[in-house]
Amino acid sequence: MASVTNSNNILFVFLLTGVITLLWSCSSVSGHSSSSFRIKSARVIVMNTLGPNNTLTIHCKSKDDDLGEHNIAFNKSFEWSFTNHIFGKTLFWCRMWWYDHRKLVWGSYRVYKGSDDIDRCSGTDGNTCVRKAQWDGVYFELKDNTFIKVYDWKR
C-alpha cells in the first residue's frame, strides 16, 4: 500500500510541476517583451503613418512586461513578440503621443487582447497584429489586410 501512495504522490508532483511550468511560460515577451486553452505566439507592430516630420512616441506595457518608451519616426515601426497566456488573458496597452503643430495629441489604448485578437490578426498564421497611428486616430489591420479606425486621439 505504501508504494502505491508514493507512486501517486510522485505522479501528482510530476503533473503539478508540468502545469506550473506551462503556465509560467505562457506570457513571456521576446523581441523587447484565444480561444481558451490554446497557447499561440503573437506579434504586435505599431506603425507611424502620421506624416513627414511627425514622431510618434509610445510606451507599451502588459501586466508582466514594460517595453519602455520608444520614438517612432514617420513610416517606421516598433514591434514585439510574445506568447499568449493559456486562457487568452494577454493584454498590452500603449500610451501614444505626438505633436500636431506644437499641440500635444495623445491617447492610451489597448493594442492587444488575447481573447479578442488571437484569431483576428493578419499574417499567414494569423498572429501578426498591425496597429497604425494616423493623424485622425489609431487603426487596426483586419484579416483581409484592410484597416479599421478603432480609436480617436485626444486633442
From TrEMBL:
Q: Which UniProt keywords apply?
A: Secreted, Self-incompatibility, Signal
**What name has this protein been given in UniProt?**
S-protein homolog
Name the protein family.
Belongs to the plant self-incompatibility (S1) protein family.
- Cross-referenced Pfam families, in alphabetical order? Self-incomp_S1 (PF05938)
A single GO cellular-component term from the record reads: extracellular region
First and last residue of the signal peptide = 1-31
Single GO biological process annotation from the record? rejection of self pollen
Task: Please give the organism.
Answer: Thalictrum thalictroides
